[in-house]
TrEMBL record, chain A:
Higher taxonomy: Bacteria, Bacillati, Bacillota, Clostridia, Neomoorellales
Keywords, sorted A to Z: 4Fe-4S, Electron transport, Iron, Iron-sulfur, Metal-binding, Repeat, Transport
UniProt-recorded name of the protein: Lactate utilization protein B
InterPro entries: 4Fe4S_Fe-S-bd (IPR017896), 4Fe4S_Fe_S_CS (IPR017900), Cys_rich_dom (IPR004017), FTHF_cligase-like_sf (IPR024185), Helical_ferredxn (IPR009051), LUD_dom (IPR003741), LutB/LldF (IPR004452), NagB/RpiA_transferase-like (IPR037171)
Classification via Pfam families: CCG, Fer4_8, LUD_dom
Compositionally biased spans, kind Gly residues: 595-606
Stored NCBIfam families: quin_L_LdhH (NF045670)
Organism name: Neomoorella glycerini
Location of region: Disordered: 593-647
TrEMBL record, chain B:
Pfam families the record matches: LUD_dom
Organism placement in taxonomy: Bacteria, Bacillati, Bacillota, Clostridia, Neomoorellales
Domain LUD: 9-177
PANTHER family in the cross-refs: LACTATE UTILIZATION PROTEIN C
Underlying gene: lutC
Protein name: Lactate utilization protein C
Species this protein is from: Neomoorella glycerini
Superkingdom: Bacteria
Length: 762, 187
């Protein structure tokens, strides 16, 4: 569980309305502008090129550093290899001291923040002046910290900046942005012209030529590296690339991903010392490059985390992060924020320091989708979580839930049945769980219970498994805990729809929790145990296909099991064989029906596939009058059947579940299946692929973050004008139903299986 | 891409990024155009000499028009209203100017004054950054201080409100010089 101080920071950020407003406005505009600035470009191939260049560099930093050093020295510059922050600070201080420097102009540099350079120099009587406007404003506000990697002061309203400037100038300053920018120009110009030293960071460092590449919009880096007679560049090893042409794809992506600009106003490439004005006349500037390690080479040697060194610091991952957008970078606590920030913090600071920040990741995978360096950030966050857990152990509640219960399916099922009997009146509070272990941990925190079905799916399965005379396919249904115990009706819908398609579905009773809750909690041990149990159970079903209706489970079976059991001779092959059989329900339906238009199943409903796609389209249209989605009212409980007035199509909007879209890549398949249903009209909501804020245990751990994410989702859902929200994840069903219920909305939330089950022959 | 298309793309991209592109038919028209556009911007000019500046007779024309011209000194370009610099290349893809700015005066004139005038012959417009890099690599050793400039200096640091002209020039005027009347300076 997150530390108390950390929780307080979250609370403060969430309570700060102007911060939230600014971040939201920025992030909303960013998504649109980013799309525009990449229009007509092949983002996938661009990111592959960048990832290849940076991954190659990360595998040979030592070689590149040597080459870089030789190149800089050949031009007359100096390179200092700093193994840690202390060494870097001291070197820079000594250079300043040798030159009798009292004032330094600094261009934005995360590395300098990382090594806490300003404080070090200040304590020794040297004043560093930040010259990036935002950084300067923050510097004038003791105790403030950057809230964003690219726009550090995005959280400050102009009135606040005016107050800061008024204090600084000792005269009233109006909150007029244009005028305040002029003041900054005037004041900082004095510093540029008098400082004895300029300090910059670097966006790229080219080993071949010894070139440092710096991107700015304001032009401060040009001044800081031109006017003062001494220049110190602080360059992390991860900025190294082999050749000068390697900068091209990075420069193509960095500004586009960072601020949605085709290029920054200035790109400055410095290779060795250049002429500068030195007191008496023109001379040659002194150039020092501090190559900073501080955990980077250790990271490069780590087979898992090496990937994070591909980061080009564009911050697009945070720009699209629904959590970052709410809490801002100030909450993360260290220099680098967001998911990638927590990974970097683990190496540049310590694993302990990364423990809280990493826990903020909700796992929606949006960041992985936009990362121009193709870093699988959410995956790395999970790996980090595993390491945190290995080092710090699980919290008591989690330990009890995961080891004590989830890892023992029989006990868990018994407890759930007991819970179903004991739960009493169900409150209107939102249901809180996804996978049952979380329900147990919620018990320990005194939270309200979710509604547990009176009869779990596993008990209903026998009634559902009427043998088909000539089945097309034999499928084992892996329901996952939520469908099994909270939404057995989704499972029934799966049986019904697949049965109609001629699929014989069986329910292996020995199946257990997929282990996702353990995986996402960093508890590898429990995850391995459950993987084995499930593999054995599903093998026993002797099915051709293992069908799931929960994308989280599907990811566990398809991807996590083989990874958890890799290298285990007894299990590796079995895990892979299982993974190959796993198919999501909607995906399977799409395959069985050939994605054709029209109501489900050919006339007669015997489950034989007759038409090809084109033909089916015609047949489907003809059949549309007598076979439509109707209100059959066969089931008692709302949300029940699709409602429909006359022959008008029912408006359905589709919510993309994070795992379903970004792991399984089935978002378009689901839409095609729904569009194929006569009587349904698919209407897109705004931001359909934005997380609903559930994230399994996340909504229990961080309800204060989960809730506003949900609220935004609900707003978009309601605005779509649809009557039904279709989803392919029972977790999202749970979250959205709870949210709409609280809104008092009549909208229904249905799993695609339920919608298809309702679309049937009269 | 045909050269005319490159020029069109360069012009529209540069203007989209906030620069003003002022085409002139040939080097012979540079000086009079400068007199015309610089007058409202202040009479103090920092000028970096180059063959083009000489052929075009920039110094003489500005002097005759009453401008004070700075070409040197410890305070070079610090007080000037405008800096005039010849750039090496234009990049059509992004409307970017490129130059080897190793020479100190070149750098100062392009970065200190509120206005920057970039002189660029049309035949130096290239399609993209790769072509420009190739051009420098072809010259031999890589420049000590290489600069890409796209539009004026800008910030959006306060409330994400785009504001032009922070530390660098507030105005970037690109005199795009056609090849009428000879005077090629291809590099």
């Amino acid at each position: 569980m997150a530390g108390k101080e950390f929780k307080q920071r979250i609370r403060r950020a969430l309570d700060n309305a102007s911060l939230r407003g600014a971040l939201e406005r920025f992030a909303d505009a960013y998504i649109v502008s980013r799309e525009q600035v990449y229009a007509g470009r092949d983002f996938e191939s661009l990111r592959q090129r960048i990832a290849a260049i940076k991954a190659d560099a990360a595998s040979r930093y030592e070689e590149l550093a040597e080459q870089f050093t030789r190149a800089v020295e050949a031009r007359g510059g100096k390179v200092f290899r700093a193994k840690d922050a202390a060494a870097a600070r001291e070197y820079i201080y000594q250079v300043a001291r040798e030159h009798g420097v009292t004032d330094i102009v600094k261009s934005k540099s995360f590395a300098s923040e990382e090594i806490h350079l300003n404080a070090y120099l200040q304590e020794r009587g040297i004043t560093p002046h930040e010259t990036d406007l935002a950084e300067w404003i923050l510097q004038l506000m003791p105790g403030e910290r950057p809230s964003h990697m690219v726009m550090p002061a995005i959280h400050l309203p102009k009135e606040e900046v005016a107050r800061v400037f008024s204090r600084y100038l000792n005269e009233p300053v109006e909150p007029d942005i244009k005028n305040m920018v002029r003041i900054a120009r005037r004041e900082l110009r004095k510093k540029f012209l008098t400082a004895g030293m300029g300090i910059s960071g670097a966006n790229i460092a080219v080993a071949e030529t010894g070139t440092i590449v710096i991107c700015t919009n304001e032009g401060n880096a040009r001044l800081a590296t031109t006017v003062p007679p001494v220049h110190v560049a602080i360059v992390g090893y991860e900025k190294l690339v082999p050749g000068i042409k390697d900068i091209v794809p990075i420069l193509e992506a960095l500004p586009r991903s960072g601020t949605a600009q085709p290029i920054t106003s200035y790109v400055t490439m410095i290779t060795g010392p250049v002429p500068a004005w030195k007191g008496e006349g023109e001379g040659i500037k002194e150039l020092h490059v501090v190559l900073l390690d501080n955990g980077r080479t250790r990271m490069a040697a780590d087979p898992v985390f090496k990937e994070a060194l591909q980061c080009i610091r564009c911050a697009s991952c945070t720009n699209v992060c629904p959590v970052f957008q709410l809490v801002s970078g100030q909450v993360y606590g260290y220099i680098y924020s967001g998911g990638i920030g927590s990974i970097l913090t683990a190496f540049f600071n310590s694993l302990e320091d990364a423990a809280d920040p990493q826990s903020l990741c909700i796992g929606c995978r949006r960041c992985a989708e936009v990362c121009p360096a193709q870093i699988n950030i959410p995956e790395l966050v999970l790996k980090l979580r595993e390491r945190v857990v290995r080092k710090q152990g699980l919290s008591r509640g989690y330990r009890l839930a995961l080891h004590g219960v989830v890892a023992r399916p029989k006990l868990m099922h018994t407890l759930l049945r007991a819970a179903a009997r004991l739960q009493g009146p169900v409150t209107h509070g939102r249901p809180l769980i996804r996978h049952l272990p979380l329900f147990f941990s919620s018990l320990t925190e005194g939270r309200s219970l979710p509604a547990i079905a009176g009869r779990p799916l596993r008990d209903r399965a026998k009634d559902l498994e009427r043998p088909l005379s000539k089945p097309r396919l034999r499928a084992a249904f892996y329901s996952g805990c939520v469908i099994d115990f909270a939404y057995p009706e989704i499972g029934e819908a799966v049986y019904k729809v697949l049965g109609r398609e001629g699929v014989q579905v069986v329910f292996p009773q020995e199946q257990a929790c997929c282990g996702a809750p353990a995986t996402y909690a960093g508890d590898r041990e429990t995850a391995v145990k459950l993987a084995k149990q499930n593999i054995a159970a599903l093998e026993g079903a002797r099915a051709e296909v293992v069908v799931t209706a929960c994308p989280t489970c599907a990811v566990a079976l398809k991807k996590d099991f083989p990874e958890l059991l890799a290298g285990d001779p007894a299990w590796e092959g079995r895990a892979q064989a299982l993974a190959a059989k796993v198919k999501d329900f909607t995906e399977l339906v799409h395959e069985l029906t050939g994605g054709r238009q029209g109501p489900f199943g050919p006339p007669g409903g015997n489950g034989e596939k007759k038409q090809g796609a084109g033909e089916g389209l015609e047949t489907g249209r003809q059949g549309s009058l007598d076979r439509q989605c109707t209100t059959s009212g066969r089931r008692a409980e709302p949300p029940g059947e699709l409602t429909q007035a006359g022959n008008q199509a029912v408006k359905v909007t589709y919510h993309d579940s994070c795992h379903f879209k970004r792991h399984l890549g089935l978002d378009q398949v689901a839409r095609r299946v729904l569009q194929g249903q006569t009587g349904l009209e698919l209407v897109e909501m705004k931001e359909s692929d934005r997380c609903c804020g559930f994230g399994g245990s996340y909504s229990i751990k961080y309800p204060e973050i989960s809730r506003p994410i949900l609220e935004r989702k609900l707003k978009n859902i309601v605005a779509s004008g649809a009557e039904v929200v279709a989803v392919d994840c029972p977790g999202c069903v749970l979250q959205l139903r709870g949210g709409l219920d609280q809104l008092g909305s009549a909208m229904q939330v249905k799993h695609t299986a339920e919608i298809l089950a309702d679309c049937e022959d009269e | 891409m045909r050269h005319a298309e490159l020029i069109a793309s360069f012009t529209s991209q540069a203007e989209a990024m906030g620069a003003r592109v002022i085409p002139v038919a040939g080097p012979g028209e540079v000086a009079s155009k400068l007199v015309e556009i610089l007058r409202p911007l202040g009479l103090k000019v920092a000028l970096v000499d180059s063959p083009l500046v000489q052929t075009a007779g920039v110094e003489k024309a500005l002097g005759q028009a009453g401008f004070s011209i700075e070409k040197d000194g410890a305070c070079f370009a610090r007080q000037a209203d405008t800096g005039i610099v010849e750039f090496d290349y234009g990049i059509a893809e992004t409307g970017t100017l490129a130059m080897d700015a190793t020479d100190l005066k070149t750098r100062l004139a392009a970065m200190l004054p509120l206005n920057c005038v970039a002189l660029l012959p049309v035949e130096r417009v290239r399609a993209n950054l790769t072509e420009v890099i190739d051009a420098y690599l072809g010259r031999g050793s890589w420049p000590g201080y290489f600069t890409l400039v796209t539009g004026p200096s800008r910030t959006a640091d306060i409330e994400r409100s785009l504001t032009i002209g922070v530390h660098g020039p507030e105005r970037l005027l690109i005199i795009l010089i056609g090849d009428n009347g000879g005077g090629h300076h291809g590099r």
